[in-house]
Write a structure and sequence with these properties.
The complex is a heterodimer of chains A (about 140) and B (about 100). Chain A contains 3 helices and 5 strands. Chain A is of the alpha+beta class and about 140 residues long. Chain A has a 5-stranded antiparallel sheet, covered by helices on one side. Chain A has helices at about 10-25, 30-50, 105-110, and strands spanning about 1-5, 60-65, 70-75, 115-120, 125-130. Chain A has one domain: Histidine kinase-like ATPase, C-terminal domain (Heat Shock Protein 90, 2-Layer Sandwich), CATH 3.30.565. Chain B is an alpha/beta fold and about 100 residues long. Chain B has one domain: Transcription Regulator spoIIAA (2-Layer Sandwich). Chain B contains 3 helices and 5 strands. In chain B, strand 4 (about 70-75), helix 3 (about 75-85) and strand 5 (about 90-95) form a beta-alpha-beta unit. The radius of gyration of chain B is 12 Å and the shape is globular. The two termini of chain B are about 20 Å apart. The chains are: A alpha+beta (about 140), B alpha/beta (about 100). At the A-B interface, helix 1, helix 2 and helix 3 of A face helix 2 and helix 3 of B.
């Protein structure tokens, strides 16, 4: 479990991966949880950086593990309002000719994490998401 | 780290993590393709939407000349992403 601040740069993606992977490996978190957690962290961080290029403050990421599940909180004190929980439909059945590259990040997150919360006030955004291990009938 | 290169058999081997920071490397390589190719994902651990966008862009460009990318040895987690993205309908995909 831990918290770290990251520079607002796409290059921080590798550092975010190492930070969270170390925590989840130490806690023996299953790959079925680690993969969507890494995906959601990258997509949300990249959104914060890409859609608010004038911002300068670092972004805080907090990772907590409990009962083999993971809860991540991302806090940006220099954020533009952008509700990541709002549904953004992607026509995944469109033909190759109709498909346009981009726009899949939030669509994927909304399918792959168990919970996703967003709070914005006074320029500060707080995004929290969680993932529990997949359960299988025996 | 992400690596992409030709195997001796002519397939294109992708390995590591294809994330937003590495997508430019994938785009530089795949942007040079002008014929059908097979991408081997056996050693690819992770892909995000940035990588998906490069794959889609390449497939759209190649389709103009009747060519296509085929992707083989896709792990379960990456296949889930392909499925949620509808990529299983626009790429020929073989799972591990």
């Amino acid at each position: 479990m831990g918290q770290q601040t990251f520079k607002r740069s796409i290059d921080s993606v590798a550092d975010i991966y190492r930070f969270s992977e170390d925590i989840m490996t130490a806690a023996e978190i299953d790959e079925s949880v680690r993969f969507p957690i890494h995906l959601a962290m990258e997509e949300l961080f990249v959104n914060l950086v890409s859609y608010n290029p004038g911002a300068r403050q670092t972004i805080v990421i907090d990772v907590q593990v409990a009962n083999k599940g993971v809860v991540v909180t991302i806090i940006d004190h220099d954020a533009a309002e952008f509700d990541v929980t709002r549904e953004r439909p992607v026509d995944t059945g469109a033909s190759l000719r109709e498909r346009k590259p981009g726009g899949l990040g939030l669509h994927l997150i909304q399918h792959m994490v168990d919970t996703l919360e967003y709070d914005y006030r006074d320029g500060r955004s707080k995004i929290r998401f969680s993932k529990e291990p997949e359960t299988h009938d025996v | 780290m992400f690596e992409i290169d030709y195997a001796e058999t002519g397939e294109i081997i992708c390995s590591g993590r294809l994330d937003a920071a590495q997508s430019a490397r994938a785009e530089a390589f795949l942007g040079r393709l002008d014929a059908s190719h097979t991408l081997d994902f056996e050693r690819l651990e992770y892909i995000s939407s940035a990588g998906l966008a490069i794959l889609l862009k390449t497939q759209k460009r190649l389709s103009g000349s009747g060519a296509a990318i085929k992707i083989i040895n896709v792990n379960k987690h990456i296949y889930d992403i392909f499925r949620y993205s509808g990529f299983n309908a626009i790429f020929e995909i073989e799972t591990l």
